[in-house]
Amino acid sequence: MIQLADYFHIQVSPDKMSAQLFCYDDYINQELEIDESSIRRFLDANHILYGIDQASVNQIISGAEEASFPIQIAKGLPVINGEDGQIKYELNLDTKYERTKDWDFRDVMRIPNVVKGEKLATLYNPTTGVEGINVSGAVVLPKPGNPISVKAGNNVVYKEENMSFYSAVNGQISIIGRYIHVYPVYEVKETLSMKTGNLNFVGTIIIHGDVPTGFQVQAEGDIKIYGMVEAGVVTAGGSVYVSEGMSGQGSGFIKARENITLGYINQGIVHAESDLYVENSILHSECVAKGHVYCQKGSIIGGTLSVGKSVEANDIGSRLSTKTEIIFGINKTFSDKEDELIARQNELKDTLQKLKHIGSKLHEQDTSNPKLRISILRQKNSVKKTEEQLRIIEDMLLKINSKIGSEQDAYLIVRNFIHPNTIIAFAKYKKKINTNYHYVKINLVHNEIMIQPLFD
């Protein structure tokens, strides 16, 4: 009687979910008569009891060639682990208005308001999963899903009976970390003064007046200012709206993680993580927008504009050839800093190379000379200081990310005139405008800046 153990051995995967049949050298050139019952007995002896592949069994009975091995002889039933719990929000959390043909320029912030008693979200429990079976016939238990960790925060009530969250007040929903909050709006009925002081609020701020020079306004939500911003600081976790505009005097600063909308910008610094809307003109300012810039009724004169996607403006530059820079794909301020750091890095590398060369020359001399030993110590100290400065520069370079978009897809649309001494850059590709162009589109085509007639 043939002993299959003399010709075959079985290897089971670590998770016992598959078994492979290997042949020994004695199997080669042997004409063995193997039936299914002997294979089944061999498998039983090796504790292969589940998921046996009949096609593989038939292949062995018919005389599998050596090249066919190893053969998968059995496969377990995979375990299906449970899915984690989920949360479904019952309202629209989007803060952008849909831009239809009836869209109003001033409709830029849609605050996701909720009313008292409104359902905010529903939790769904995790699933337990489905058991599996390994090739030995043992049950494999699934790993259950994890419950979602979301809790009721400020002004929010959780009802266990239907696993839902409800608003306890009228206000604005805000999801921060593991908590759902509803924040009421903080409203100031006048221009900021020493009576109100600086503002720092977790929700939305509305100011019916101005933000004068020196004042700071900070909100985790949106900021609406029905007045003007002077040389103050306004930062928002959402959008910023300024009905009049900004007269920044070279130091006024507005920053938002979403859109920024103003009547005008004059000598200001404005950074928008999304889009920048300016109803009239941008004058001698430093502006950054990772999305689009719309200045369709006014001009962009002087200063720099760093943009991620597109610019639409009435006029660029001025008849007096005021230097105006429009840069796509990178933040010019960060890019200039990056260039400075790279130049400094190269200087330090050159200095370090020279110091090491000096050190090797010093060690070739008689080190018993006291003056020489002092020179060696000075050289080592200089090397250490230079290496430390180089590490600081390299760390700073790692933290700088000047890229804010793809210059390949960016474009500029000018609906009136673009004037001489305007510099257009798509990342490293630059073009200086030397003559007036009217009603044009400018973009990067095959790494060349193209100026084309604009057709609506």
TrEMBL record:
InterPro entries: FapA (IPR005646), FapA_b_solenoid (IPR046865), FapA_N (IPR046866), MinC_C_sf (IPR036145)
Domain Flagellar Assembly Protein A N-terminal region: 9-176
Domain of life of the native organism: Bacteria
Pfam families associated with the record: FapA, FapA_N
Protein's name in the database: DUF342 domain-containing protein
Species this protein is from: Oceanobacillus longus
